[in-house]
Design goal:
By secondary structure, this protein is an alpha+beta fold. Helix 1 crosses helix 2 and helix 2 runs antiparallel to helix 3. 55% of the residues lie in helices and 19% in strands. The strands form two sheets. It has a four-stranded antiparallel beta sheet with strand order 2-3-1-4, covered by helices on one side.
Length: 405
């Protein structure tokens, strides 16, 4: 008897205490989502509990508090027939044109007023507070990302909100939003589960920023397997030998080319490859290289893969009047910022002689860092450095970078 009463009390708690239930559910959901991202997306060995506590607080106060106030008391007063419409059967809903219109009005207020002008400003402000940024940075990001955020938001949350306002009772609206947001975070974590990078906006996705999450599914940078051996090989010669024939020979010898780059200079093709193979198969690869004819080959080193806790990856484009030492200056600058260069392509362009213009230095590189860097602050530092040294330095998100020097 007592157990049955306790069970009924638990089951009816969301209906009897919707605000308390919404606050607690949103707090736990947001905290859990952050734990999920830290553990499986960022692959942290130690949980940042200060950051997690901040996320939970945001879920408690805004997602559970502010949104409850909007979706229940405010919408109940603005749309007194909304609750009755939600309790009707599907057949009755299809006949209730006025109720459908009321639902669409709620969706409009939530997606076109609440999120653009209340949720996103609060989101960016809270994010900057957590990562130690400035409110000016939050305002700039909000303005720069406004269009992208809104369209990405609508792709997921317009249909989700229509379902919410059509079928959920008033007490269930906040749990529905929190559950949908958690499901999306789980999908995002699965799609990027082996992705070790974390760009300038990524730490904030677990706040429940439904808009930007949709646009953050990146192409993944393949990780070298620490159970395999990795050989760095350089070849120089005719392209058929240095690239085509050599890659075929390495494949037949049990090697897998996981990284490569090439350029053509003075009539020959120079290729650099990272070849992955079973450690026991390394002697076979070496024997293949020693007997290979048609290209000059150098076996540089046997590498052991390491796991990097990268939280930031980006592309940097550098251009300016050519002069000796630019590459050294840029690499030194990145070293001082604790930024690791992952790959780069550097080549100078020579205008037609009749223009009278000088050669232009061009550099494109991809870099990463194990620190959560603020993209806008980093761009300002690079721009300031570039203006003092006569070069242009522009950051681009790595996933959108498909151009070549």
């Amino acid at each position: 008897m007592a157990s049955g009463k306790l069970l009924r009390s638990i089951v009816t708690f969301p209906v009897r205490k919707p605000l308390i239930f919404g606050l607690g559910f949103s707090c736990m959901k947001t905290s859990f989502a952050d734990l999920l991202v830290q553990k499986f997306v960022e692959k942290r060995t130690e949980i940042d509990w200060r950051r997690n506590s901040a996320f939970g607080l945001f879920g408690l106060l805004y997602l559970g508090g502010v949104q409850y106030f909007l979706y229940v008391p405010v919408f109940r007063r603005l749309f007194p027939n909304a609750e009755a419409f939600a309790t009707k059967s599907v057949k009755e809903k299809l006949k209730d044109t006025a109720g459908q219109l009321t639902m669409l009005k709620q969706v409009f207020l939530d997606q076109c007023i609440h999120h653009p002008f209340f949720y996103f400003p609060c989101f960016y402000a809270m994010k900057e507070i957590v990562v130690g940024g400035k409110l000016e940075d939050a305002k700039r990001k909000y303005q720069n990302n406004f269009k992208e955020d809104i369209f990405a938001l609508w792709k997921i949350w317009v249909p989700a909100t229509m379902v919410n306002f059509t079928f959920m009772p008033m007490w269930g609206r906040i749990p529905f939003v929190a559950s949908t947001s958690l499901v999306w975070t789980c999908i995002l974590s699965y799609m990027r589960g082996s992705d070790p990078i974390d760009n300038h906006t990524r730490p904030a996705e677990v706040w429940g920023n439904q808009g930007r999450a949709l646009s953050m599914v990146l192409s993944k940078r393949a990780q070298l397997k620490n159970t395999m051996g990795h050989l760095v090989i350089t070849s120089c010669g005719d392209s058929k030998a240095a690239l085509t024939r050599l890659s075929k020979s390495l494949c037949e010898a049990g090697g897998n080319i996981v990284r490569s780059s090439a350029f053509y200079v003075c009539g020959e093709t120079v290729v650099t490859m990272v070849v992955e193979t079973n450690p026991d198969n390394v002697p076979r690869i070496v024997s293949t290289l020693q007997s290979f004819k048609g290209a000059s080959i150098t076996l540089n080193k046997l590498l052991q893969a390491q796991v990097h806790d990268d939280r930031f990856e980006c592309s940097l484009h550098v251009k300016g009047k050519d002069r000796p030492g630019i590459l050294t200056e840029v690499s030194n600058l990145l070293d001082e910022m604790d930024i690791r260069v992952e790959s780069f392509v550097q080549g100078n362009t020579t205008p037609s002689h009749d223009t009278g213009k000088e050669d232009v230095f061009c550099l494109r590189l991809v870099f990463s860092s194990n620190r959560n860097l603020n993209l806008n602050t980093l761009q300002e530092s690079l721009s300031d450095y570039g203006s003092k040294h006569g070069i242009s330095m522009i950051l681009l998100p790595h996933e959108n970078d498909h151009d070549h020097v």
